Amino acid sequence: MNFIMKKIYQIFLIFGFLSISAMNGHAQSSSWQVRILDETGEGLPGANVQNRRDRQIGVTNINGIARLKKLQIGDTLIASFTGYQSAALVFEGKENMVLKLKKGVALKGVVIQGKTAYVNPLKPILSETITSGELKKAACCDLSESFETNASVDVGQSDAATGAKKILFLGLSGKYTQIQIENIPYLRGLSSAYGLTYIPGSWVESIDVSKGAGSIENSYEAMTGQINVRLKQTTDTDKLYLNAYGNSFGRSEINLLSGHRLSGKWSTSVLFHGNIMPVKLDGNNDGFLDRPAGGQINLMNRWKYKSDKVVGNWSIQVVEDEKNGGQKDFNSNQNHRTSPLYGIRVRTKKIDFFGKNGFRDLGKNEQLQAAVLYGINFTDLNSFYGRRQYLGKQTSAFVNGFLLTDFGDSKWKLKTGINWNYDGFDEQLGRLTSGLPAYDFSRNETVYGAYAEFTNQLTDNLTWIASSRFDYNTVYGSQFTPRLHLKLNLDESTVLRANAGKGTRTPNPVAENTQVLVSSRELHLDEKLKQEVSWNFGGSLQKEFTVFGEPATFLVDYYYTYFTNQLVTDLDTDPNKVFFRNLDGKADAHSLQAELDLTPAEGLSVKTAYKYYNVQTTIIQKKVQVPFVPKHRLFLNLSYAFPGEKFRIDWTGQLYGEKRLPDTSAKPEAYRLGENSPAFFTMNAQTSYAISEKLEFYAGGENLTNYRQKHPIISPEQPFSKNFDASLNWGPITGIMAYAGVRWTIFK
Prior knowledge:
By secondary structure, this protein is mainly beta.
């Protein structure tokens, strides 16, 4: 770990220099613009705009424009004007907002309430926004831990040895969910296994979780939904912010953020994350590490330019990550091909550059806007699992340019654009008993696409979005992708949504299933793997009401995903083999979720949910339940802020139903598993105390029920035998874990 400690020291020196520079700079307050219009589109001078959270009020000028300061993602802005109905919108980070008021009496109440996590009833697409305030309810070291207080996204370990995280969304693997940073595709290909750990929680401003076939503007890949991460903006980053964390397993990490406004138009920020796990943890005494040792260096530099008509954002991120696992006595410097001990090492180097440029009032037309989003990624993966080596290099590039315009009295909106996407893979997997190449997954794939999206408000209560795109893939040929979304306001507090759409993606069999490498299974692949193609249909009902005089929300949604082709990962046919096959039969997923969010007493918020998954695919002409997916899940989150809101307690409990396990009946009796895993219950809790607006301490625990999967590794005493398998992970591996940390705004 010397190389990591040296780099952390070098980064600290750089950060010290940047922070001193920032302290000597001239700070300016950020402000956001809200334009209030009447029904004809004319500005309303003298209208009031109030932030519900801090009661800040702005008054519109002669052009109907008001300016507000210190807004936070999730703030509710209420606009009012004599003789007009009040209206509200939720601040989502946009620098320029527009809100229309209708003539008539004031509404009795405003549907939208300021929350740390909310579903905006104004959006046609069902989308939950998780704010930075919600993320503070848990340790949230990285993106994989950002959903602990969220009912929609399931996160767990992919196996019992590597520490890789996986997510389930609508009951399906996270590979079917498009993960983006600020609407730019981020985690793809070689980053699939560990990419969730490359986005530190302290860097995140908010996360948008959209269900179903979402926006088509970036690609055709979003099959079950989209997770869009918005990082802290340069203008909102404190001059120097520290978040330090440590836990009882020996892991420690530090986050340092520094933002600086260079002039009225230019600003920049530096975000640093470093973590280290020097302890070799083997809590179940099976000889294998429960969590890999290692560390990560993660640095990002962001720039922003803003003028009256042009906005530009650019970011560059550099990640170096190392994970060392396997048997406790294995030394990562040993030759893994000849060592009698089973070792695991995953070294990843990653560089990402992404940016976007926006242009307003093109040709002096206030209704015509344009933007260009782009990114390029380089990933270098060097890993081995026992005596099997897995190497890969990936170069990916992405460009999306579009025009956005309003017409027809602003009831029609048209977004049209073009995409270009390139993926270059140099990827090899060695044999089970030697490092010699057995499989070569190298390919070069380019996609050219064009799309159009129409949004129309047919009536005051009915909005629809119709979109489609056409793409040409140099490997797989042409693709046509249609999607449709409808939103109907049944009354002022009830919203009904429906959607349908197609999705397509290119599978990466090994990169997206690295857990199978931690076993003695031989790999077998169909000669030519096809693209995965699915159709998603869904709907939701959102109801806002009051309980004990406080706002409450009930939300129920159902989604059905049907595959016309799927990459089937077959672990059942032979317990000593894994087959990657094209679908020969049917595959589908049913997802039902009912959620209730309420505030039964002042300071107390309650969120509870029930989820049902029925996910099946065809294996050797037989339709079976997909393994490791619980049919039933119950979720409960309680949060209480004491008077004054300096002291807060957060508690989350989750009950997971049985999960089908792969068939191991052909193994010797001592190495067999049951047909299903048992149901189990886990608890996490955290307390936080804010000494001041700038300084907060937090402490908590995870898996407080101390529930652990018994014998998570089959045949750990003989890791090179044909019975060895660490990939069949269905529950927690480690027991109770305690942690503590500090959030400190050193210089505002």
